[in-house]
Specification:
heterodimer, A: 533 residues, alpha/beta, Cholesterol Oxidase, domain 2, 2 domains, 6-stranded antiparallel β-sheet, B: 156 residues, 6 helices, binds flavin-adenine dinucleotide
């Protein structure tokens, strides 16, 4: 793969709106950005429509709320269900980004691979009440070569001769606690931020602002890698500030383009030979549901009724340990630390699937907002007073897919464009509850093993991992797309983000989204090559 | 149909007394003994400013601030810390309480002077990161071992 040094903003050619040869891609995050780059390298012209603005490193601010308000997807959403987010953040079920590069402009960089058994949960976990487990139509062996390529693309540490990141203060606490507990799989990665200069980008300077964009560009994202590389092929037309409102189809039910609003609110139609949707699970499902028509009355590609269902968000919870010595967790790479011992499937612990313990640090503004939503009074302020002596970890694990955990259209509320907003319903599954309890308990023991004087169990943040709303299935009645992310019902419609995940696995999703993107690009190119697309 | 009185009702919110009372409520809600009044005053200022453009908030504050002076049997300002906390516990969950709490949790902690009080440095002064400037200066624990995550893979 080529090395480029296109920094800052880039301009792209404009392809005609009636050009039927282009591939139309919705969203410029890891899913859409990777697919676009891979297709462009193969000589296939792509139009990428991105709802958000084209911001770059210069625009980023190292300030939590300012950065959040600058880039987060703040269009209204509604929630219901037993999950705590419905009470704590009823209009912010997810933390995603609306900007060129997608949520990977705010991501941290933790990149574990899925394990073999996580592709076969129906078989390996067996029947679990209320869970709609299903085996993926592909296995680890199918994805392994693409994992290799994704890791190379993203400059993942620990592989390809790239050194691990150094231990920061927060990791020193977690690493030592983990060792005391007898854990063995303790590392600062794999992590997709440069530990040494790589691919024309510098090594991290440990500024601690990973969730706010990355002013140094040491962290992989489509904005600093896939998109500028695609630009260099001459085959990319990237349009920022363009919100896709509907996917259109011809009389035979094949997708023939999209309708989108430009920055001024003008409605356009972009034609294309194929449409690939990578808007991140909530928006991807919403767009398919919004694309209903007399031919597809329940939404595009939804004959199975599965669009929007089996929404997964990972276990997630945090543990904050308080010490009588300073930690200064905000210094350095925010999530460069992982303990993997609990990521196994071992039902002796009282639940199926596994979870990772990963480093996390929040600044004062975000810790106040998220450490104990709804909190106040002397206990709360004691937590804040201990800020500089606090260490933090995040728990990320597999949650159970459930048919009614689902994204639907809220017909009673519209966004600024007049479109129905997405409604997210989510009930915790007993397996999720048991796993979270286990994680909190282990995290508490870990910090106590190195002298914590107090440990706080923090509930989930707005979901940063949004998965499964258009899941892959071997049989059309079980899901929305096939093993290539290609819609069962519409042969030239693809889903190119985490919505495809049949089940969620314990690992953070982005490496797998990128690996699937490379694999999907090969498939699309081959299909175009043989005249089938 | 009656005509609307020509002068809008005088709001008490802009009075120094309301400002002072809301500051006392803020301090009781988020009690940091080491903090001076200034951060609380700034946070309260933000709420009152927001109230100018938000009629629901303004109405809630008008009534709520009167209520906190009666719930505890004496004016809020005359209560000791424990009694103030008891008043807040009684009104916890009301719309007034939630309006004030949610705005304080951002308004109070999103201030540079508060970061200084809590020891949070935020962005490294020159923007160049903590590499070589203490990102790994914790010295009360041994250097942890970093194991190769790909060796000895957990497969189960
Ligand atoms: C704080 C934070 C930390 C994270 N850390 C990690 C981590 O360490 N490891 C990891 O694996 N993952 C992490 N993630 C998750 C990671 O960011 C996502 O998995 C990844 O970005 C998903 O890629 P995507 O392309 O599917 O979606 P996104 O990156 O969300 O991109 C979707 C894009 O589509 C655009 N879009 C949506 N709808 C439309 C429409 N109708 N028209 C036009 N454009 C549209 C959006 O504006 C957005 O730019 C983190 C996320 C956050 C918020």
């Amino acid at each position: 793969m080529s090395t480029v040094q296109i920094r800052g903003r880039f301009d792209t050619p404009t392809f005609a709106e009636d050009d039927e040869d282009v591939v139309v891609i919705v969203g410029s995050g890891p899913g859409g950005g990777t697919l676009a780059h891979e297709l462009c390298e193969r000589g296939i012209r792509c139009v990428v429509l991105e709802a958000g603005p084209h911001l770059t490193a210069e625009d980023y601010v190292q300030d939590e709320w300012e950065a959040f308000n600058q880039m987060a997807w703040l269009d209204p959403r509604t929630t219901s269900g037993s999950f705590r987010l419905a009470k704590d953040f009823p209009n912010l079920p997810a933390w995603t980004v609306k900007a060129v590069g997608g949520t990977a402009t705010h991501w941290a960089g933790a990149t574990p691979r899925f394990k073999a058994h996580e592709f076969q949960t129906a078989t390996r976990y067996g029947a679990i009440d209320g869970a709609t487990l299903l085996d993926w139509p592909i296995g680890l062996e199918d994805l392994e070569p693409y994992y290799d390529r994704a890791e190379e693309k993203m400059g993942v540490t620990h592989v390809g001769g790239r050194p691990p990141l150094p231990a920061n203060n927060n990791f020193k606490v977690m690493g030592n606690g983990a060792k005391e507990l007898g854990y063995r799989h303790i590392a600062t990665g794999p992590y997709a931020t440069n530990s040494a200069p790589f691919d024309g980008r510098p090594a991290t300077v440990q500024d601690g602002f990973n969730f706010q964009g990355d002013k140094q560009e040491a962290k992989w994202s489509p904005l600093v890698s896939e998109l500028p590389k695609a630009v260099r092929t001459g085959n990319l037309d990237l349009r920022a500030g363009c919100h896709v409102v509907q996917i259109t189809h011809d009389a035979r039910g094949r997708a023939d383009g999209v309708l989108y609003l430009d920055e001024e609110g003008g409605l356009h139609k972009q034609r294309g030979r194929a449409v690939c949707v990578a808007g991140n699970a909530i928006e991807t499902a919403r767009l398919l549901l919004l694309s209903d028509s007399p031919l597809f009355p329940d939404g595009l590609a939804n004959s199975s009724g599965q669009v929007g269902r089996n929404y997964m968000r990972h276990l997630t919870a945090s543990v904050y340990g308080r010490f009588d010595r300073e930690v200064k967790m905000w210094r350095g790479e925010t999530m460069a630390g992982v303990v993997a011992d609990e990521s196994r499937h071992d039902t002796d612990r009282g639940f199926a699937g596994g979870y990772y313990m990963q480093l996390i640090s929040l600044g004062v503004p975000f810790l106040a907002a998220f450490v104990e939503p709804g909190g106040w009074g002397p206990d709360f302020t004691a937590t804040m007073d201990a800020y500089s002596s606090t260490a933090g970890m995040w728990l990320v694990g597999e949650d159970m897919p459930q048919a009614d955990n689902r994204v639907t259209l809220n017909q009673g509320m519209t966004d600024a464009h007049g479109l129905p907003v997405p409604h997210v319903h989510f009930d915790d599954h007993p397996n999720d509850v048991a796993m979270r309890e286990h994680g909190w308990t282990q995290g508490t023991k870990l910090y106590e093993a190195v002298g914590a004087t107090n440990v706080h169990r923090t509930p989930p943040y707005p979901s940063t991992h949004n998965l499964g709303t258009c899941r892959m299935s071997a049989r059309p009645e079980d899901g929305v797309v096939n093993e290539w992310g290609r819609a069962h019902d519409v042969p030239n419609l693809f889903v190119s983000d985490g919505s495809q995940f049949t089940t969620g696995a314990a690992a953070n999703p982005t490496l797998t989204i990128v690996a699937l993107g490379i694999r999907q690009a090969e498939h699309i190119a081959a299909e175009i090559g043989r005249g089938a697309l | 149909m009656a005509t609307t009185p020509s002068t809008p009702v005088a709001t008490t919110l802009t009075s120094p007394a309301s400002r002072e009372l809301l500051k006392d409520v803020a301090r009781a809600m988020f009690p940091h003994p080491s903090f001076p009044d200034a951060p609380y005053e700034r946070a309260v200022g933000t709420i009152l400013e927001a109230a100018e453009a938000d009629v629901r908030l303004r109405a809630q504050l008008e009534q709520g601030l009167r209520d906190v002076d009666v719930v505890g049997g004496s004016p809020f300002a005359e209560l000791d810390d424990a009694a103030r906390l008891a008043v807040l516990r009684r009104i916890e969950g009301t719309a007034f309480f939630e309006h004030v709490r949610t705005r304080l949790v951002t308004g109070l902690y999103d201030q540079k002077p508060v970061w200084d009080l809590l020891g949070y440095e935020g962005s490294c002064p020159d923007g160049n990161g903590y590499l070589g400037r203490g990102f790994d200066d914790l010295d009360w624990l041994p250097e942890p071992q970093i194991v190769d995550p790909h060796r000895d893979e957990i497969v189960r």
